[in-house]
Amino acid sequence: MSTAEAPSALPWTAAPRIPGRLPWIGPGLALLNDPTAWFQRQRDRLGDTYVFETFGYRVFNVFSPVGVKNLWALPESHASKGVGDFALLSHKVPAELFDGRRTFPHGLFARENVEVYLANLGEAVDRELADLGGAGEFEAFAFTRRLAHRMGLASWGSPLATRPGRLEKLLPAFDALDSSESFVHPSKGFLTWASGKRRERAALAEIETIYREILAERDATKEADRNEGFFADLCANWEGEPEEVRATGIARDVMLVHMGSQSNLFAAMAWTLIHLLERPDLLERVRGGDERLLEQCAHESIRLRQRSIVLRQILEPCVIEDEHAAYQLEPGLFLATMMSVTNVQGAEGLDRFDPEHYSGGPRFARQGELPARELVTTFGHGAHYCPAARFSTRAICLATKALVDRFTLEPRFRAPQPRRRQIGGVSRADRPCRIRYRGGA
Ligand code: HEM
Q1: 0.85 cut: is pTM over it?
Q2: For a tag site, which of 6, 265, 383, 412 has the least CB within 10 Å?
Q3: What is the pLDDT of residues 168-221, one digit of tens each?
């Protein structure tokens, strides 16, 4: 890999190219129909490095050990995740939301105040489980979606946001704004575009109004009584600004952090629960207090159900090598690989759920068997490693443990699989995953 131009490098156009029958659309429809299978089919036909063009995007793809390793190693200044994400998210998210942000997950999680955030997470779980009552049935993803909203907002959106009545208004607004919709249901992107993001703009205005109320209430409370975790840091970034600027700035910072969370956290929580219910032997050990096993299950669930496309937009000329050639990449091009393809290959048995693939903590236990460690990923690698990885693992373990300790759970689903059309994030399921529960495990 090199960030300069290399005289011996081939132009990127020399890589095998996927023809598309339709102008502009190219192979896009087949890709969106089942991205994971499609990327793999092209590998089988053309090899591990290939290019295609669709909907105006030119995408250079790498899947081989050297190619994937070199993708992760390219610096942001040359192959940008931020600009690549923006290109995708701007179809869904109103542009004004990206403007002037002061709080980013990196800053928040770098100053983790573990005690406060764990207390807030615990309280959010207690409240949500209390709302379940003594017995009933829920759908795993619908339930964890609501739970993760509550846990996230209690952590960085102020505990005041999760008050009954207020939470009910905030959740539909956050769901309307949810940027992950654009990659979970790519076809809905057209609707967003056709409506001029009307629904998203209304949600943004609704959340801003609610945050003006929250801030008025917060400012009337003594600092020692607030227990607000990350929200205190977020507010500090807007201290001293005129009231309207401050309120809008805080509301939009909360929105952007929360949107980062919506892509993955609840789905990872749902799969952890589903996999445990599919393996009563593991469930019993977790109930018995085996917290290490629970953490292994969380990491393994994320590995197996990852559907993230790793996407970078080239900003400066740079070179990427695979095992056979070096290619010159030019600005404007996208560089990609797909975790759902690489995460289940590279070693025998990776297509199956086995918590022993993690030995405690986020490190993949079979790393030594892989031709490149970057071929398996849960929270990413290198400079873009997820800043909320530790927080998310804690949140998943805390919520799952509380559920299995307090309820007897009976799965009403059979062998759910990832949703076929998803391209990005941890997968949602291809069918409802209903779970019957009864208090007193
Ligand atoms: C189980 C939950 C989560 C999973 C599996 C996950 C996964 C990932 C992955 C794979 C990446 C790297 C992507 C790439 O390099 O292309 C990433 C980056 C990121 N994640 Fe997460 N994530 C999770 C939770 C969260 C939460 C809760 C937040 C925010 C509150 C968050 C915010 C971010 C941000 C801001 C980045 C970009 C980092 C950068 O570009 O330097 N994530 N995440």
Answers
A1: yes
A2: 383
A3: 999 999 999 887 776 666 666 655 666 678 889 999 999 999 999 999 999 998
**Is the CB–ligand 1 distance for residue 310 below 6 Å?**
yes
Q: Which domains does the chain have, with CATH numbers?
A: 10-439 (1.10.630.10)
Residue from 101, 379, 385 whose mutation best tests the ligand 1 pocket (most atoms within 8 A of CB): 379
Neighbours of 65 (CB within 10 A): 19
410 CA → ligand 1 middle, Å: 31
